[in-house]
Specification:
The complex is a heterodimer of chains A (474) and B (112). Chain A has one domain: Orthogonal Bundle (Ammonium transporter fold), CATH 1.10.3430. Chain A is 66% helix and 0% strand. Helices cover 22% and strands 37% of the residues of chain B. Classes of the chains: A mainly alpha (474), B alpha+beta (112).
Chain lengths: 474, 112
């Protein structure tokens, strides 16, 4: 009791003495000036706080939007495209990633991606999220808490592997998926994220990387890696039983439609949020994102109208996604008119990839993860090198701080080469990494469903449920 | 007692129900079925894949009637369901051995 009283007294003493202003001899005039300086300092702090609050509000919102893109956006989009017997299994793949990747990210993923390490991978400084608190991480986002930056990046780490699930839809074991994704997140996603966005990353345009790749929101990090990995998976696992002879139309384009709309809206968080602040760059990226999606709908829908005589709803929403993928690396570097151009080109290009190229080569990329994300992301990354304008975002500066040209049309043809290096890195990392991981998982757990389970469907065989129990009596 | 099975176009269901009610037939079972006779299906496109849908949605009505009411019912159904084009459907008649009312165990034509 006595000790407690003494401790309390000491605490109060320290608190009050720290708060007591030091009294010094002052004239009335210097006292007024000192007041002014104090007020000015407080005002500056308040302005900085307000700006930081605005940035933080937008960034937390963006993080939520990007998570929504996975669940329910992608879950619905993919879920509607598969056969009824696989709807829950498909959605479960995305949802499981929301849980598993989050945990992995907190334990080690964030550190490997964003802490200082070498040119290719981060270190262990932030394992268990050590050092990730309320203070900003100045190299990345100087106006928002480090935690906000970390959680925002987590949502990207979640959706990237989720995109791959489209390639092996309806035929991969759930246990294999879990193991595959954990390995992929650590050995493919983290290195790529580090190289493009991390401190010291060899491809990091903002932080002086050796081959600066302009990738605003993840054209290479997210779409090329996942899309190319998807192709590898589709080839390695082989086609679905009965493909392509048996008809396997989507069981609910309605669900896919809803998912696609959620993806479009969520993408504002994905792209505009990559401005890491609530300023005019976020606006610019928002506008570019939206216009690209719109143009791509017209591109894909128009191409389909010409080729098939009717524009389908599935085509329209697929076009939208293709445009959003292509604008992802470009969003914060291009103006509105180039955004329209990028969207239009991507819509037509991805349509042809899905409709002609896939049929020609016969691979069963079931939900077109490669056709849209791999191909669209590659296209977008290269178009970024063409259309990037320093007036939109002065990412390269000379020694006097003046903005240098960003892209080809502005006079920087060299950037296209850098984009190629970034894209090639993503391709190689995805192919090699995914192949190795597939071999490991196949050897340990086994990748593919048995013929019986595949016929039965994911829902029953992997999860013991049915998506729709409409025939069961009340 | 005769079972009347009628496979008709989806769009004709209301007209057939009304026609049957008008001649005093009130009991019927309606099923949603798929099938085709000589009617061709249609093609659907999903991301470049062409699917031929040749099992066309139809409505099947089942009624069990006393023999003396069957012909009037058949006429009513056919007239209401006819459009003159391929795909109008068919009516089949078969013999029923027994009918039982579950509520009170009544049997025979009285149970209809």
């Amino acid at each position: 009791m006595r000790t407690a009283c003494i401790v309390w007294f000491l605490v109060l003493f320290v608190t009050f003495s720290a708060g007591v202003p030091t009294v010094s001899a002052q004239t009335p005039q210097s006292s007024a000036m000192a007041d002014q300086s104090v007020r000015l300092a407080k005002l500056e702090q308040a302005v900085a706080d307000a700006k930081g609050s605005a940035d933080n509000a937008w960034m937390l919102t963006s993080a939520a939007l990007v998570l929504m893109m996975t669940g329910p956006g992608l879950a619905l989009f993919y879920g509607g495209l598969v056969r009824k017997k696989n709807v829950l299994g498909t959605m479960m793949q995305s949802f499981a990633l929301m849980a598993i990747i989050s945990i992995l990210w907190a334990l080690i993923g964030y550190s490997l991606s964003f802490s200082a390490g070498n040119s290719f991978i981060g270190g262990l400084e932030h394992v268990f999220l050590r050092g990730v608190g309320g203070q900003p991480e100045a190299s990345y986002a100087p106006t928002i808490p480090h935690q906000t930056f970390m959680i925002y990046q987590l949502m990207f780490a979640i959706i990237t592997p989720a995109l791959i699930t489209g390639a092996f839809a309806e035929r991969m074991k759930f246990s294999a998926l879990v193991l595959f994704m954990m390995l992929w997140s650590v050995f493919v996603y983290a290195p790529m994220a580090h190289m493009v966005w991390g401190k010291g990353g060899v491809l990091n345009a903002a932080l002086g990387g050796h081959f600066p790749t302009l990738d605003f929101a993840g054209g290479t990090v997210v779409h090329v890696t996942s899309g190319v990995s998807a192709l590898v998976c589709a080839l390695y696992l082989g086609r679905r039983a009965g493909y392509p002879r048996e008809p396997m139309p989507p069981h609910s384009v309605v669900l896919s439609f809803i998912g696609a709309c959620l993806l479009w809206v969520g993408w504002f968080g994905f792209n505009a949020g990559s401005a890491l602040g609530a300023g005019s760059l976020a606006s610019s990226a928002f506008v570019a994102t939206h216009l690209a999606s719109a143009a791509a709908v017209v591109g894909w829908g128009g191409a389909e109208w010409v080729r098939n005589g009717k524009p389908s709803a599935l085509g329209a929403i697929s076009g939208s996604v293709a445009g959003l993928v292509a604008i992802t690396p470009a969003a914060g570097f291009v103006g509105p008119m180039p955004a329209l151009a990028i969207g239009l080109i991507a819509g037509v290009f991805c349509y042809l990839m899905v409709v002609k190229v896939k049929a020609r080569f016969g691979y069963d990329d079931s939900l077109d993860a490669f056709g849209v994300h791999g191909a669209g992301g590659t296209l977008g990354a290269l178009l970024t090198g063409i259309f990037a304008q320093s007036a939109v975002n002065p990412v390269f500066r000379d020694s006097e701080g003046r903005a240098l040209p960003s892209g080809l049309l502005e006079g920087n043809g060299h950037q296209l080469l850098n984009q190629l290096v970034g894209v090639a890195t993503a391709w190689i990392l995805a192919i090699v990494g995914t192949l190795l991981i597939l071999k490991i998982v196949d050897a340990t757990v086994g990748l593919r469903l048995t013929d019986e389970h595949e016929a039965q469907g994911l829902d029953l065989s992997q999860h013991g449920e049915e998506g729709y129990a409409w025939e069961v009596p009340a | 007692m005769t079972k009347v099975e009628a496979i008709i176009q989806n769009s004709k269901l209301e007209a057939v129900k009304t026609a049957l009610h008008d001649i005093g037939v009130e009991g019927m079972t309606v099923l949603e079925v798929r099938g085709h006779g000589r009617q061709k299906g249609h093609t659907e496109f999903y991301r470049g894949h062409e699917y031929t849908v040749d099992l066309i949605p139809k409505i099947k009505l089942e009624l069990v009637l006393p023999d003396d009411r069957v012909e009037k019912a058949v006429q009513a159904i056919a007239t209401a369901a006819r459009s003159g084009k391929i795909g109008d459907g068919k009516i089949f008649l078969s013999r029923i051995d027994e009918a039982i009312r579950i509520r009170n165990d009544e049997r025979g034509e009285g149970a209809l």
